[in-house]
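BUG: 3D viewer hangs when loading the predicted structure for this chain

Environment: internal workstation, default settings.
Expected: structure renders.
Actual: progress bar stalls at 90%.

Input used:
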Amino acid sequence: MKRSLKGMIVALLLSMVIFPTTGHADDSNYQETYRNQFHYSANKNWINDPNGLVQLDGVYHMFYQHNPYGNEWGNMSWGHATSTDLIHWKEQPIAIPEAENSPWVDFWFKTKDDTKPVHYIGTPTTNWDGGHPNGKKYIFSGSIIVDKENKAGFGKNALLAYYTSTYQVAVRDDDTSKDPLGNYLGLREIQEQCLAYSTDGGKTFTKYKGSEPIIPVTAVPNEQTGNFRDPKVVYDDEHKVWAMTVVTGQEVDIYTSTNLIDWKYQSNILRKHDVGNGVWECPELIPMTVSGTKEKKWVLSLSVQNGAPAGGSGMQYFVGDFDGKAFHPETSETMKNPKWLDYGEDFYAGITFSNVPDRTIMLGWMSNWSYVGEQHTSPWKGEMTLPRELTLKKVAHQDYQLIQEPVKEINNLSNKVVQLGNKKVKAINETKVNKVTNYQGQHYRLSAEFSWKEKTMPTQLGFNLRESKDGSKKVVVGYNPKTQTAYIDRTKDGENISRNSTKVKLDSDQKKIKLTVYVDSSSIEVFINDGEKVLTQVMYPNPDQPSDSNGLSYFVSNGEVKMKHASVTKLNSIWGNN
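Structure tokens produced before the viewer hung:
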């Protein structure tokens, strides 16, 4: 999605100059260097936030932020891909293109920074050039629901796409002494919520009333114009109402509707943690049943541009209740203490699929707004994470935790399984490294359980992944039992990356840990203790010689562990041409 920041396009263009590209410049065959083989990416060009995730008649639809014309952020439209198993995706034509030849804008509005209303008037534009407006409006993030009962009037089972329309327009005051339109004050960003609908199963969309907003910027309750976005719609079965969450800077606003067209503002949720450190984005209220019970809770998930555990952008969540109008956090301290969905650098803008009964499946963008310039690939740029199935677990009185695991359909890719066996590994006052000699590759699932005794507790244990033949270059997935910290260390992968903050402290010291790692061409997703914690990391091993990054080993430092149920499973490509 985004950016409303004027410097985003400039920064991304500079990053394209600083970092060399790899791969082919013409049509992709999905086999370029660093092209992930079981994570979705577009054939060509930039993608970011997933939008409008929905299932209809056995087909999963993934819409997403997409630039159809280039490999950097811009020309934001909704790309589209479909799947029958959440794993194998087929790219479809652009679903909702950016608006062109947009009509003249003319309204008065007072923001919190104005002393009186000002005049928004002129041709919309997306180029921050008041002298040469291009008449365009970007299509930012949003969501899709299935209108099973034809509440909106477009037909039974119509797909309704709610999205943010974004543009800039000239602003003037009421002084007409020099200009009959008023004194020119410059350009401002406008964001409004719009609707498009599809009656052919998502193949084509019609913009409702020619892109006329269903929630105009003048309806923003906190008087913002440039950070009002990302509508996510969900049905509240208990109160028989549709609820829409939209961010407005440092808060989430909740609207409700019974006909899916007319929306009424009901309440807001104020940010109480790290206020002002970037804006909230991609809000969602997720109804969930607590695992093993009949208790129902609502999870508020959000993306934040800055302040995530590994630095830059990330995703957080809060647990509470919803009464059909307002979200009620579980305790008075809930909003002050966000929980994080992922402790790696690269999990952002995740939302769940709608119309999937009895399952809560989230998909995220595998990147970070602070480091996106390091993803120097061509002809594509940007990938999605593996779809994750979420469950809500009660861990203490008034405390809940999301458990995340890859969807079971990932097993459809399983090919060769190599058993590493059950064994003791000793490393008294040293580091013991054992190379895996019967498997090499770049696309696999690696899983093992480690346990130890107090008197022989090691200082480190884990795996060296994507190793070069001489062992000098590698990505480390490990655990420090003394600090109870799991981590990904890519400081020795050959990229010369100085950051080393992809880590998480576990909640308890159990003298054991299970690591399940999904390794792809340019990414790692680590699921700790069956999804208790997750680390997601984009990486580009050994850029001077990418083909020399197929090795694998396991290690223990200064102690002794038992390794059980250790195995490597080769995962087939989803592209079907290898």
